[in-house]
């Protein structure tokens, strides 16, 4: 497994120079790298892999799109070592037109929470006027309340950056959070609603 799962805060940063496919690094606040992610291009269904490092010698998480139609995008998050299906994230297309919403499902398909864009006002401003000038902010709501996991895009017109903050005692599986964060950085971050 990788040390990124022990961090309460990390950043997912897109690699700037690339020819095909998206590539991302998991970094701590001191920019120490804890993981590498590659999103394969020219696939009918998304296929995203997370590795311990750029050598790609040890894969620890994979995200696979459930169906070809992305509007209702369901993405299975799987532990590459054990083959365990950790859970699924599913976009609600019509609900996300004005404000991004992703439903979080456990391995059995039961809804356990939701990732929601920060506010309707900011969400509308991003879509109508300001786009890149107002980076997205999200929080994860799960049953039982408690502190939120937050994800926020950093303003940078050239490189995608997503900062993830996890309360130390948050009950959600950190592998699931890492997979969801990559889906946000790679899929939601490319402008699809």
From TrEMBL:
InterPro entries: LOR (IPR007612). It holds the Pfam family LOR. This is Scramblase. It comes from marine metagenome.
